[in-house]
Amino acid sequence: LRLQQALHGVEERDELTLVYQPLVELRGGGLKGFEALLRWTHPELGPVRPDEFIPVAERSGAIVPIGEWVLERAARDLAAWRKGTDVTVSVNVAPIQLRSATFPERVAAIFAAHGVSPSALTLEITERVLLDDRPAYMRAMAELRELGVQIALDDFGTGYSALSYLSRFPLDVLKIDRGFVAGLDSQPQARALLEAITGMASALGLRTVGEGIETARQLAQLAASGCDIGQGYHLARPLPVDELLPLLERVW
Ligand code: G
Ligand code: G
Ligand code: MN
Ligand code: NA
């Protein structure tokens, strides 16, 4: 309850920030874009971890205005540092945000206000969206894709999504959960699982992102398994926006 109260109206109080983690092309070593990750520092509680406050904000509905703030800030930041490059920004969205009938319009309006094409945006959704068969989700995803927004399925492999869901929903990207990536250092079967996932993704026309890459060996195995994009501490930590510019030039 304490967290729930502290979150009420938080987006108006200068307590939220975004950090950005690079997404790197595993063939070519170029920068594909950044995932925006929300950070909250409460004046008395100090930094609160997203794993702690996001579920609370989802239950109370506070994630809706907070999510607007995230999109607004991500669009503003992207407009400031994109500078003629085609780097993209990925933003996590909660199912409740996607259920609002006006969500696609809001996304379009926010990006238009900053002069950034919605095709520079990827929205990351969770498997919960695919499990709960609401027409509102399908409609929102279709409308967003018409705007040029890409849709990524986050943490793939942790939940229960049957493979059939993957072809039923309009998706562009599969983010392979870091549990699979971690297994690459220790479990002999991990490589086979990974290759099965990238093979299936490619057959469905989906690009793949390997998450949570922490070692050079994981990076090499992901690249060898046909994974398209990498993300993780071994490549780069999430960074404040004013530290991103040098990354545009870097070859990974
Ligand atoms: O950034 P990592 O630090 O700890 O994020 C933890 C969890 O919080 C992840 O599951 C991530 O998807 C989620 N998350 C981070 N930023 C956002 C956000 O802006 N909106 C939503 N809905 N979830 C977020
Ligand atoms: O659920 P989602 O994938 O949106 O959350 C991304 C989360 O993963 C964030 O909490 C981010 O800080 C975290 N993260 C990013 N790279 C790594 C990594 O290499 N290792 C671990 N353990 N976590 C990571
Ligand atoms: Mn994510
Ligand atoms: Na993820």
Automatic annotation (TrEMBL):
Domain of life, per lineage: Bacteria
Residue intervals of the EAL domain: 1-252
Name the UniProt record assigns to this protein: Bifunctional diguanylate cyclase/phosphodiesterase
Residue window of the full protein shown: 340 to 591 of 602
